[in-house]
Amino acid sequence: MRVSSLSLTLFLLLPVSAAAQESRVHTVAGEFAADIHSKKGMGCESCHTGVTQADIQNPASSSKFVIKRERIPQLCGSCHADVNRIKQLDPQAKLRSDQLELYRTSAHGIKFTHGDPRVAVCTDCHSTHTIRPSSDPLSSVHPMNVAKTCERCHADADYMKPYHVATDQFAGYTASVHHEAMVAAGDLSAPTCTTCHGSHGAAPAGLKAAADVCITCHVQQAKFFEESPHKEAFALLAAPSCITCHTSHLIQHPDDAFVGTGAHAVCSDCHSKADPAGKAADGIHERFQCLKSEIAGAKTVIDRAQLAGMDVEAAQFQLAQATGALAKARVTVHTARLARVDAEVAEGTKIAAAALADGEAALKERDHRRKSVILPLFAIAALMVSLGAYLRAIEETEVAD
């Protein structure tokens, strides 16, 4: 998108034949037919000031069609920062009228205001003549497409080199749990670039920085973090909270190996096995493993009973409760307090034990039922054998006579 908007400006500045320019204008006119602005009744002259229908039909000169890059934010703002104009074009008031103001607070807007024409402007993200609503799957700013739009600049090492900004964000995001939820699960509410970094401003609405955005979705984790010793420690170190442990873009599914001082544990980045915090982290990891083992053991017994045709609905419900307790304990880990995690694990252990007992009781009932059936069968079989022997004896007597 960055390249296309620049190339359009350069193209229009180059000396070209009238036929070539006319062809270009007609091509753009065709593209513009699907543009949201066209559908709202706006024409070329709305942005290309001074252009008339005669110019469009007979574009002998290209100069009237040129919109210099430095004019673009202010040009878009002439409508999008005008409350009355926005109300006229969007009576349902879905569009905000502060995008230009917010843009000027962003890294892009600040650099642009200070004379850097290379940073993103409106057309780089929204396109030039094919702008669609963000709800349209074909839009460059539809949730499914936002990351690809940002990637055009932010994954270009040469383009980003002057800004000393990493260019691995897109690669990290596409391997993350957030991208998996967005693309694989089709969850349009899952985070993408603008969710954390804001659409036009420096940060999402109501937040001071992108690093604070995690709490808008992960409310319970944030609440537990407030109770943890990490809060004070991170504040002293001026370290961001969530991304210190989870990183910012390559966010993986945290499993139980994430906690502790093992090879894949994030706690080991700061703590060793010998220090108190490291011991607590290993203790939390061990609690998780024990409860997982108890749940698995109970499930094995309950599954056996179910395969035998026993009613294990109550035991399965208890098993689900125990699994829920383990999930809650995993969230409670954000308190970084072994005692808090212990309490949740203990509750889960108690429920898992009850589920196991119910499963074992169901197996005993199965065995009892089998005995109740097998003993009469043996008696019947013995009776049939005796009857058979008796009948044979009678037959033999009759033959002898």
Low-confidence stretches: 1-15
Oligomer: single chain
Proportion of residues in extended strands:
under 5%
Number of beta-strand segments: 0
List SSEs in N-to-C order: HHHHHHHHHHHHHHHHHHHH
What percentage of residues falls in helices of 4 or more residues?
55-70%
- How many domains? The number is 3
Q: How would a textbook summarize the main sheet?
A: none
Task: Specify the overall morphology.
Answer: elongated
Radius of gyration: 35 Å
Q: Which class best fits the helix and strand makeup?
A: mainly alpha
Distance between the ends: 113 Å
- Mean pLDDT across every amino acid position: 87
Helices, by number, come to: 20
Report on the structure:
- The chain is elongated, with a radius of gyration of 35 Å.
- It has helices at 2-13, 18-32, 36-39, 53-57, 72-80, 83-89, 99-103, 107-113, 122-126, 146-154, 157-160, 169-174, 177-184, 193-197, 219-227, 229-237, 242-246, 276-307, 313-332, 338-400.
- 23% of the residues are buried.
- It folds into three domains: 1-131, no CATH class; 133-253, no CATH class; 276-400.
- It is built from 20 helices and no strands.
- It has 401 residues and is an all-alpha fold.
